[in-house]
Structure formats: C-alpha cells, structure tokens
Write a structure and sequence with these properties.
The longest helix has 81 residues. The protein is built from six helices and ten strands, in the order H-H-H-H-H-E-E-E-E-E-E-E-E-E-E-H. Helix 1 packs antiparallel against helix 3. It is elongated and about 115 Å long. A hairpin with a 7-residue loop joins strand 9 and strand 10. 50% of the residues lie in helices and 14% in strands. The relative contact order is 0.12.
Length: 359
Amino acid sequence: MGSPRRPPLFVPALLCALAVLAARATAADGGSGDGAYGAGASAGDMSVGEQVARLYEDAALATRQYEAGRQQAEVQRARAQRAEELLDRERREIAVLHEDLGRIARAQYRDGGGLPMAAQIVLASSADELMRGQHVFSQVNLAVGNALDKSRRAEARLAADRTKAATAWRSLERRSIELAAVKNTIQGKLDEARGQLQGQADVSVAAGACRGAVRLDQPRTQVTGAWVTPVESYELSAGFGSGGARWANRHTGQDFAVPIGTPVRAAGAGRVVKVSCGGAFGIEIVIEHPGGYYTQYAHLAAVAVDQGERVAAGQWIGQSGTSGNSTGPHLHFEVRVTPELGSAVDPVPWLAARGVPVG
C-alpha cells in the first residue's frame, strides 16, 4: 500500500503576511511608519481619514490572510485524519495476516506438517508426496511472511505521514491564531479611528463648513470600465422610491450599507460641481458627468476632492459615514439630470444600462 502525498508543512505567504500586518499594527500605534505609510511618514503625520483608509485596507488584508490560513489548517487537519484512518486500516490488515499465518500453521500441523521429518518420511506414500507437501507449506509461509513485511513497511510510512500531517496542522493552527490576533488589533484601531472620523464630520456639519479635502492614497486595483459602483463591497439598504418617516416624499436614491470610513469612489469620470457640509445630506459631493447626468454621494464622513476638480472612474473621492439626516452608516447615492435635489432617476437600472449590475 503506497503512502499518501505529503503537503508542505506551511504556507510561506502566511509568514510574510503576518510580519507585514504586525508591522502595520505597530506603526498605527505611533511607532515607525516606514513600512505602512511610506518613507518619512508616520501615523502621527496622517489625518484621521488617511489612517482610517489605511487601516481599512489592512483589516481587509488581515481578514483574507486569516481565512486562507484557517482553510489551509482545515485541509491539513483532514489529511492528518485521513493518515490516521489509513494507519488503522493497515494495522487491521497486519492482524488479519497474522491470523491467516496461524491458521495455516495449525492446519499444516493437523495434516502432518507438525510431525518430525523422520515420521513424515516414513508415513509418506512417495517421495513426490513428501516434497510437494513441504513445498506448498514453504511457499505459503513465504508469501505470508512477505505480505507481513510489506505491510509493516507501509505502516511505518503511514505513521511518519501521520506525524508530519499532524505537525503541519498544529503549525498552521498557531499561524491562524497569530493572524487572528493581528486582525483583531487592526480592527480595534480601525473602529477607534472611525469614531474619531465621524466625530470630526459631525463637527463640520454642525458648523456648516467642510474641513477640506483629505488626500487618500488611491486604490492599487485598476478600473477597466467607464462606470463602477460607488463602493466596492456593500449591502443594499433603502432603494429608490421607497417610503418612510425619514423622507418628506419618497427616497431619492439608493443606499449602500457600509461601515464608516469605507472609501467612496466616483461612479464615472467627471467634474466635482459641489462639496457641502450641512443640511439633511450631511457631507455630500456632486459630480457632473458627460452626457448631462450628475451623481451625488451623501452622508459622508470626509471628502477627498475639491470643488471644480476632475475625477476618474473609480477614483476615491471620500469616505462613507453617517452625517446629516442618517440613522446609521451608509452611502446615499443618487443619479440626477440636474445638480439639484428633485431631479433624481433610479440609479440601479441607470448603472445596469452602463454595464454595472448592482445587487
């Protein structure tokens, strides 16, 4: 019986990710920030919005690495269990062979195989009969002996495989625990920074004056289409035209439920025609697009563009929040035919017509 294939003991990427994320978590505490924020910059040099954006990315990376480590540990655990089952089966087969050899020996003894050689010679009817009996017994004995040796070698290999698989599993379990600790540390810092960011937004809305654009490092992923959803990951909440006590008439946009500080991106290329920080929409941005349409992004916690600035599709223009007339963190997204309230169209079919399904 051949031994199962033995996987690597650990995934090198987990170690690299662990080191990078641990360094970033330390930098967020106010230590050296060269690895996380770029040469010459530290957490203390960054605005709260920038820190939230960086921690947002770090938390997403830590989550992906943790999940990868956990899944790899589960694979190794299954392999260790499989090796244990194969080892048990091999041992059972060895026990059966031992029993077979015992039965053959007992049968041979009953048939005269246990008699002294002299007695067998006397009782044998011919020399051929005597030689055939001895030959059959020797062949059977040799076959069983070979089978036992082969099975013992297989048992030794399986025992080694079981040990290696169990060692790999325990190693990956430890890596997963370490990654989970880093992930939780980053998430705690992110939650704290989100609270500070929203606090600043509430002050700006109360004063009716924006704090100014917070320039965010743009995403590394390249946008290939002309249009995108205003946030990358989301859950849909209130839809266009829905009713409720929060709105004087009907809901004029599509809400995307996202945590405070989530990067908000321009749905398409255009020019920023409005940045304001007061009223029911709280902190909001309106962008004019070619073709006579406008998009609005409301209830933000921070803006990353200035009025009059040109933006590209997918460019980060701000961070989501819960400013203004909002019952919880989300992005209110509208598509309008004028820059003003009251000219909205349903954004979901509008985006779908431009190759961007929302759902």
